[in-house]
Amino acid sequence: MLHRTKKKADENAGKWIGVGGKFEEGESPEECMLREVYEETGLKLNSWRFRGIVTFSYSTWETEYMHLFTADSFSGEMRDCDEGELKWINKSEVLNLPIWEGDRVFLKLLETNRPFFSLKLRYDDNGNLKKVILDGNNFEF
Q1: For 75-103, what is the mean pLDDT?
Q2: CA distance 18 to 12
Q3: H or E stretch including 128?
Q4: This prediction's pTM
């Protein structure tokens, strides 16, 4: 997990998040994921699984899409990240960290090994989770 503590003007400041970032021109989701993981951690993923797509919707900001992957094999040495502190966190402890409420939803879906899913998370302007839609249906969170 990445504890966002170093980046200036960071909407994720103080939160723990997974590693990742934005697409470069022409990249597939897998190419982007592999590049971002290596750039932020120094690790090369050897085995991964595409688990879902998350749509982040806000009233005044642009909609964002996240392609969600998990990995079970890597090589290399973890290095410092210029966006914050990288740390291995036991899965049983992740939900106790300061994370976005919507992240709790998709982390629980990953934990239950749910098949590929589409998740929409609607936030208000204060960062409060207001609505969750899972595979096109309202979802209680």
Answers
A1: 95
A2: 11
A3: none
A4: 0.90
In the structure encoding, which two tokens stand for residue 140, read together? Answer: 């209680």
DSSP string, 37-104: HHHHHS-EEEEEEEEEEEEEEESSS--EEEEEEEEEEEES----BTTEEE----HHHHTTSS--HHHH
Q: CA-CA distance, 98 to 59, in Å (whole number)?
A: 23
- Between CA 130 and CA 141 the distance in angstroms is 10
Please state the rounded mean pLDDT for residues 98-107.
Answer: 96
Angle at the Cα of 137 (from 127 to 61), degrees rounded to 5? 30
With beta carbons less than 8 A apart as the criterion, state whether 19 and 2 touch: yes
Q: How many CB atoms lie within 10 A of CB 73?
A: 9
Structure tokens at 55: 């749509």
